[in-house]
Design brief:
alpha+beta; 18 strands; 14% strand; 48% helix; 696 residues; seven-stranded mixed beta sheet; four-stranded antiparallel beta sheet; flat; 25 helices
Length: 696
């Protein structure tokens, strides 16, 4: 055999879990490659394969044998290895035995720290075929399988019963038995088109032989691309646009070995049902690709992927149309039944649905959310009465048949039902926006009413759950409080809402009253939210020290916080930033050491040094220019002005002894420095900044 050969591994099974197939394939490939590396077997390109009935990989140009290796073992020092008569000690003899040799065969190694006994061990590389079974075993054991199963009378355990094992190195079978399957050169084609064994003579022929003879496209990504293109082609023939949901596309790819599109339809009358419900059952239950018009309206057509090349595709189409019809009929029944009541009619029934034992029912929560939403709307320029009513109705769709059957319809059903009830358009839209953002990166509510009720809901949940002592710990977050905090922060920040967040949290604490058991609750929740905010800014490239410099001055609103952050970020890039940051740190340290009572302004009559006069004069010149900008939130412009203090500040510290023995002079100088510190603290604590030296 040559020095290198292609390696092929395939495990054939019963149908693997479709949602896990891609993850299983990635894990097998990564672990197998890691095993080859650990065994010092070099290789070329690695190609993974995965279908419903197989996990496989092809490794190009794999070493057929480990390289030989030499290792020098160091033993005891020569001084300890021999006695005064030159005879070997027990230490020398023990080291020789561990090397499977005798003392006279040991070498000596000289170093800067002395002379030592040593032994050079030559290890001959093992053939790859001896190492590969263990590498494969370890890779299979590391697969992310929550629960393994047994089958028949076998003791082997895997995610599904194993039927065959194909294991080749070059044109030779790697002799082994894994999961009770003996290695061979046989694979199997499509369950219906080619159920018989197929012999693989060369690993590089694997994919093409399976496709040409076995009706199996083994490459997951290639199969997915074929499905995507065929669905798009079928959709275009109907002047439609297919919903190529990435998760659905992966799942359908994992369900098929020989995918072919089948276009089918359903009665137009079902389009009277909210399209989200129809889409949910088509995608979730049947794994169909729904079709939409160019303006986003659902069509009464869908595409299913058949795992067979049928001579009568119309039978497959008819079968799928029969299957989907009763599901759509159920959805229509729920929609029609729900139409017999308005959302408001469901309010009383919310009293019987518990939000959390200590925090009351969904009715109680809706009342609190309505009151808080009213306040938020008032403070952010929305319609307070509309926000109040939206808050009251926000949970009512949970009591509908539609949401009971399709939980993903919560909020969406609220919007449709509100429209059917004749509620204002903004209120109807807000009931859908109530749940936004539903996940990381999801869109935010856009209407003023939707913003108010969504934010109110999240703040009420945060304070309530924190207030009964169930804040997140480690990776446990059963009430999704981290997501709620991130959602609330995104809403406030990205909509530039000028809301006093600590005050809002205090109002939630008051509304929950004696239901709460924790102390200093608003501050605790606010700190929790600040930690999440730090993460948001970190993703935007803002360093922790820069973030903390703003957090230390406790801006009342996140809009103000955001303006300060970007102003400080711009300031930190100025050539004056390092010097002024260092000066403020020095000021902070000096002021900490002093117990002198300080005046709001220094007394010019007590200045003794020209540098004092210059600093005070420059502050009097620049402060009136910067402060009005700070008050308007134009922090970047104000800090640009204060950068002009660099030279007089540097001169002051070069020429002035602050801590002089004369108490009046000392106190006056400290007052001047305190005045300077307060000027910068109008924006942030710039002592936190870790400014690069090359900016000076």
């Amino acid at each position: 055999m040559a020095d290198q050969a292609d390696l092929l591994f395939e495990l054939g099974t019963e149908e693997l879990p479709p949602k896990a197939l891609k993850r299983l394939s990635q894990s097998l490939t990564e672990s197998f490659i890691a095993g080859l590396k650990q065994a010092n077997l070099n290789h070329g390109k690695v190609e993974p394969f995965a279908t419903p009935r197989r996990l496989a990989l092809l490794v190009r140009d794999c070493d057929v044998r480990q390289p030989d290796s030499e290792m020098e073992r160091r033993g005891p020092a020569v001084q300890a290895a021999f006695d005064d008569a030159g005879n070997p000690t027990k230490a020398a003899e023990g080291f020789a035995r561990s090397c499977q040799t005798t003392v006279d065969q040991l070498q000596r190694q000289k170093t800067d720290k002395g002379e030592w006994l040593s032994y050079r061990v030559h290890s001959k590389g093992k053939p790859a075929e001896e190492l590969l079974p263990e590498i494969a075993t370890q890779a299979l054991n590391k697969l992310p399988i929550p629960k393994r199963m047994r089958w028949g009378d076998s003791d082997a355990q895997f995610v599904r019963p194993v039927h065959w094992l194909l294991f080749l190195l070059g044109d030779q079978v790697v002799p082994c038995t894994l999961l009770d399957a003996e290695a061979d050169r046989l694979t199997y084609g499509h369950r219906f088109h080619h159920p018989n064994a197929i012999t693989i003579y060369n690993p590089q022929d694997y994919a093409s032989v399976l496709q040409d003879l076995g009706y199996v496209i083994a490459d997951f990504e290639l199969r997915k691309q074929k499905i995507s293109e065929s669905v798009q082609q079928s959709a275009s023939e109907l002047d439609g646009v297919a919903d190529l949901d990435p998760d659905l596309l992966d799942e359908v790819t994992a369900l098929n070995e020989w995918p072919l599109p089948i276009t089918a339809s359903f009665e137009e009358r079902f389009l009277a049902v909210p399209q989200e419900a129809l889409v949910a059952t088509m995608k979730g239950n049947q794994k169909y690709f729904p079709l939409f018009t160019g303006d986003g309206q659902l069509m009464n057509h869908f595409i299913t992927i058949a795992n067979i090349d049928s001579p009568q595709p119309e039978l497959i189409r008819e079968g799928n149309e029969r299957v989907i019809r009763p599901r759509l009929a159920d959805a229509m029944f729920f929609w029609e039944q729900d139409g017999k009541k308005s959302l408001a009619d469901h309010q009383e029934s919310l009293k019987h649905v518990v939000f959390q034992n200590q925090l009351g029912s969904m009715y109680d929560k809706s009342q609190r959310v309505a009151e808080l939403a009213k306040r938020i709307a008032e403070e952010s320029g929305g319609d307070s009465e509309l926000a109040y009513r939206a808050g009251l109705l926000s949970r009512c769709d949970l009591m509908t048949n539609m949401v009971y059957e399709f939980p993903e319809m919560q909020g969406i059903m609220g919007r449709y039902q509100a429209q059917r009830d004749g509620e204002p358009d903004e209120l109807a839209q807000a009931l859908d926006e109530f749940y936004m953002p539903r996940f990381s990166g999801d869109q935010l509510p856009q209407t003023a009413t939707g913003i108010a009720i969504s934010l109110a809901e999240k703040l009420d949940t945060l304070v309530g759950i924190f207030g009964i002592g169930q804040k997140p710990t480690g990776d446990k977050d059963p009430f999704a409080l981290r997501r709620a905090a991130l959602g609330a922060l995104r809403i406030i920040r990205e909509h530039s809402l000028k809301l006093d967040l600590p005050a809002l949290l205090e109002s939630v604490v008051e509304s929950l009253g004696d239901k709460l058991t924790e102390e200093k609750l608003a501050a605790s929740v606010y700190q929790f939210m600040l930690e999440r905010l730090k993460g948001i800014y970190s993703e935007l490239g803002i360093s922790v020290d820069l973030f903390q410099s703003v957090a230390d001055v406790s801006p009342k609103t996140l809009a103000d916080f955001d303006q300060r952050v970007w102003a400080i970020e711009a300031f930190s890039k100025l050539p004056e930033a390092e010097s002024l940051s260092a000066a403020n740190k020095r000021i902070r340290n000096i002021l900490k050491k002093s117990n002198d009572p300080l005046a709001d302004r220094a007394d010019p009559a007590l200045y003794e040094d020209q540098a004092e006069h210059q600093l005070a004069q420059k502050m009097d010149e620049l402060a009136p220019l910067a402060q009005p900008l700070f008050e308007k939130g134009e922090y970047a412009k104000g800090l640009q002005i204060l950068a002009g203090l660099r030279e007089p500040v540097d001169n002051f510290f070069d020429q002035v002894m602050v801590m002089t023995d004369d108490q009046k002079i000392r106190t006056n100088r400290l007052s001047l420095l305190s005045q300077l510190e307060r000027l910068f603290l109008s924006v942030a604590d710039i002592t936190r900044l870790q400014v690069q030296e090359n900016q000076s």
